[in-house]
Amino acid sequence: MATLQGKALVAQGGGPTAVINQSLVGVVAETARFPAITHIYGARHGVRGIVNEDFLDLGQMTAHNLDLVARTPSSALGSTRDKPDAEYCKTMLAVMQAHDIRYFFYIGGNDSSDTCRIVSEHARSIGYDLRAVHVPKTIDNDLVETDHCPGFGSAGKFVAQAFAGANLDNRSLPGVYIGVIMGRHAGFLTATAALARQYTDDGPHLVYVPERVFDPERFVADVQAVYARHGRCVIAVSEGIGGKDGKPIVTTLKPGSVEKDAHGNVQLSGTGALGDLLADLIKEKAKIKRVRSDTLGYLQRSFLGCVSESDAIEAREVGGKAVQYAAGHQACGSVAIRRVGEYVVEYDLVPLEAIAAKTKHMPDAFINAEGNNVTDAFWKYARPLIGTLPPSARIGAPPVAKLKTK
Amino acid sequence: MATLQGKALVAQGGGPTAVINQSLVGVVAETARFPAITHIYGARHGVRGIVNEDFLDLGQMTAHNLDLVARTPSSALGSTRDKPDAEYCKTMLAVMQAHDIRYFFYIGGNDSSDTCRIVSEHARSIGYDLRAVHVPKTIDNDLVETDHCPGFGSAGKFVAQAFAGANLDNRSLPGVYIGVIMGRHAGFLTATAALARQYTDDGPHLVYVPERVFDPERFVADVQAVYARHGRCVIAVSEGIGGKDGKPIVTTLKPGSVEKDAHGNVQLSGTGALGDLLADLIKEKAKIKRVRSDTLGYLQRSFLGCVSESDAIEAREVGGKAVQYAAGHQACGSVAIRRVGEYVVEYDLVPLEAIAAKTKHMPDAFINAEGNNVTDAFWKYARPLIGTLPPSARIGAPPVAKLKTK
Question: Chain A neighbours among B 1-30 (CB < 8 Å)?
Fold first, then answer.
């Protein structure tokens, strides 16, 4: 295919991650290597910035600014929750045509890949030459066709370090601790809570993901069993856990306690309701007095200064690869990560239709038979993705013989 | 005074911090330099480990183990919420006598210093020679007589990095964000949320501390004003904010929504109630749709891998100094930090009576006239304490001229 001459446009969609700007910088830096790409524009606040013609001329960023922005969490261009329909995509394309934009890079999750697909198809239908490549990111790790998603590893590192600390805290002042983790449909991020365990009695002792039906009675029994054994219990639970009816458990435990968003989805993040309800359940049914809950919230995706080394590298690389596929190969698609060794990866381009609007769930092999913990297979899959963890240790000293018997 | 010959005992009390084990290791390492101290024991779970004679022989820790334990957050010996009365202290002293313990180091906050005082006075009254030194720690920074408390800087670093990320997140997807921070009576930790601000429009835009009466109507008006100006608003609020009646605001906004602990204190931590109530208030009264709240919870005090460099150094040093004062000077008291330059500190010993059971609050100079933000004076005081922050940057690129007018 002939090399298209024209401008490139990059945008960021959906929830931020700690490394989404690595991908942005990967795109910007790589476009400079293709003379056919005359300019690299960035749309502010995702697709909304395209319909509003709100562009920045990213070719004027200095190399040093690129380096610093890459290390900054959360979408530097701004993001949006807009989900374009056909009409919206038409407007986007009209703006792109006006600016002679021939390369479109959209960094985002499921919805963003679907937007890429619609824009790409519409361009083809009107005979406008456009290369559209989706650059994957999501802390939920729920995109199909890729081994894992950029953004997941750093969020997982945060969750693992949070639970490593919560476990030490709980060991120091025993009781029950519940940490609620993001993830509406996929339990990958919740499962990373287990990755910092060292000793066999380290928490989290129980892990509940949305892939399994959550039974409040079983939950109470699980907690009682762990508490009887260790005198304490640390629990990781996904915000998306649902009951037999498939509805979020928070709506079952307390109807009307959560609001719905513009898409009709129950709002699960940005509220401590689930953690508080589960804590109340334990206090009431298990008769345990010291029960605390934290909802990790937005810190998981945007905390400054918690980045997985491999995640940062891969996020940068998928941005660069997107440009290579679009400008070098003149192809459209979504960049995927393939694991080819322990631990090394390669990159690939998959058709937009193959991943758009699809959701990956935790495979059965990653969840134990009881549905209340993760397996070694999950550990092997996810441990390389979160990078190095800070060291920690228990005191290595023998007890002193008692002189008084009390 | 003659140098007492005998064993030393160290214990940790109250809530953990990220550097409380630096102080533990500071004590253990320094005792090895005093031949008069024959053994160094550690009591498990604070004063409870003393009455239960539950000791570890810390002299048998290797140098490497000491180094790793020092870098581990949360009390490695275990902690307790027990608050000893006179009878309890008598039992503690009987156990100490049985083991010929002549040096007692208690790492903790207000309550721990008071325990030190009672034990020390009781020993004197029965003619038992004992050197008792309190080693300060608390994330709340509410001890008097010391410039600041070990543990505060690292918790402040966590809070600052959390708000730096939350601000970037909020800038990317605008709305109102409320972060609830620990601190029942003192607002120091809440105020650290402001320390990562760089640009004048960076959040947190509003900071509410327990030192000022919280007026829900004023709060709504404050948020509306910021939102009108920036199209977004990031808020840091202390869990301890109270109304005109002096009661925690969470009990006013929703009576019966929180439980009371063994001491009759309303439980403020380990629940998302306050954040959710404030978010509801904004949605309802300010008619702003996208409002999210996080309660930073236990992560503030025990997150693995977020330590202020100066805090780690000082926490180690107050442990070592405690031994120097007790064994070298044969004195009792509490170790205090004096700021003698920008930024350097020295150490001092103050009488236990001067600090025991007293609480320091934010001075007026640290809070703005409106009572909804911090001042430059606070910044100057607290910025050196939280150490280095990871870099972050905005995109430095000009807008592109519009070709289509929409």
Answer: 12, 15-16
Asked if B79 lies within 8 A of A172 by C-beta distance, the reply is yes
- What's the CATH code of the domain at A233? 3.40.50.460
Q: Percent of chain B, pLDDT > 90?
A: 88
Residues B257 and B128 in one domain: no
Instruction: Count structural domains, chain B.
Output: 2
Question: Region A67-76: what's the mean pLDDT?
Answer: 97
Residues B284 and B321 placed together within one structural domain of the fold:
no
Give the count of Cβ contacts less than 8 A between chain A and B: 284
The pLDDT assigned to A257 comes to 58
Q: Is the pLDDT of residue B406 over 80?
A: no
Write down the pLDDT at residue A173: 96
For residues A294 and A194, state if they share a domain: yes
Interface TM-score (ipTM) > 0.90: yes
Query: Å from A369 to nearest chain B CA?
Result: 30
| Contact A201/B at CB under 8 A | no
Regarding whether A185 and A207 lie in a shared domain, the answer is yes
Residue A402: inside a domain, yes or no?
no
For residue A159, list chain B residues with Cβ-Cβ distance below 8 A. Answer: none
Annotation says B140 is catalytic: yes
| CATH code of the domain in which A144 resides | 3.40.50.450
pLDDT in tens, A76-118: 999 998 989 889 999 999 999 999 999 999 999 988 999 999 9
Q: Write out the residue range of the structural domain in which residue B77 sits.
A: 6-150+305-355
The alpha helices in B100-215, defined as continuous H runs, are 110-125, 152-172, 188-191
Is the same domain home to B11 and B141?
yes
Tell me the mean pLDDT in the region B344-355. Answer: 96
Decide if A402 and B301 are in contact by the 8 Å CB cutoff: no
B81 to A173: CB separation less than 8 angstroms, yes or no: yes
B388 has a chain A CB within 8 A of its CB? no
Q: What pLDDT was estimated at residue A263? A: 53
Cβ-nearest to A272 among B72, B81, B276: B276
**Is residue A355 over pLDDT 80?**
yes
What is the pLDDT at residue B405?
Answer: 60
Within the 322-381 window of chain A, which residues sit less than 8 Å (CB to CB) from chain B? Answer: none
Q: How far apart are CA B236 and CA A347, in angstroms?
A: 42
Nearest to A95 among B12, B396, B404 (CB): B404
- Domain contains A398: no
